[in-house]
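Please describe the entry underneath.
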Amino acid sequence: MESAYLNTMLVTGERFKFRRGTLFAMIEPPKDQKTIKSLEKAFNILEYLKKSGGASMNEVANEFNVANSTAYLHLRTMMKRGYITEQDGNYRVGVKFLDLGSFARQNYDFQNLISDKVRDLSEETGELTEFSVMENGKLFIIQQEFGNNAVRINSRIGKELHMHRTAAGKVILAKIPESMVDQIIDYHGLPKATENTTTDRAELFEELKSIRKKGLAENNEESIDGLWAMAMPVKMPGKKFYGAMSISGPIHRLRTESHKKELYQTLHGAVNELEINMEHSIN
C-alpha cells in the first residue's frame, strides 16, 4: 500500500490535514479568483454538451452568444484531442472521458475493498447502495450497485451532487469543521430540488448537529420525490474520515421504523467490516 500523501490547506484561517484521494480535497476557489476565460468557455461547452446530450455548432454558438467561427474553433480543438466527437453535425462528449473517470476513481485508496462491500450490501438489501466522497465541495459517487429491488433512478458512478440534498453528503458535512461547511455553502449555495430540500443555513447546521449525535443521516425526499436514503460515515485507518456509504430506495418501502432499524443494523455492519478490512490491508 502506497504511503499517505499528506498536505495542508488553509480554510478561513485554519489549517486542516488531508490525504490525497480523501474527502479533504480542496473545495472550490473563491469566485473572484482569476481564471483563463477561453479555458472556462471550453469547460462550459463540455458541460453543455453533457447536459443536452449533444448539440450542433449553431446551438453551441447561440447558447454562449459567440460567433459560429468561435464555436467551431472550440469544438474542433476538443475534437482534435479526442474529448468530443461529431456525427452529422451533432457534437457530443467523447468516450475518452471514460479513461479519465476510471483514472480519477483509482486515485482513491481501497477501491477493491469498497467495491466488494458495496456489492455485498446491495445483494443483502436488494436496494441501491453507493459509496461517495466529497471533492471541491460537491459529492461524487465512486462506487454503486443496483440490487434486485432497486429503483432505477438517474444515478451513476461519477455523478456530481449537492452535499445538502443527500444523506451521504450530510453525513460528510457533519464530520468536517463548520468553517469549511460555511465556505461550501458560500460558494455552492443551498439550491432546492424538492419541497423537502433544506435551503436555510441555520436549519442545516441544526440537522448536522443531530447527525453527529446519531452517527447517520437520512434523506427524506430532499433530492428526488419519493426517494428515501440512509448513510453512515466510513473512516480511514488511523481514524481519518474518508467517505460515506448509503442505501436508497422508495420511501413507502423503506421509511417504516422496523425497516429503518433493520437497514441501520445492516449498514452499520457493512461499514464496520469495511473499516476493519481497510485497517487489516495495511498491516
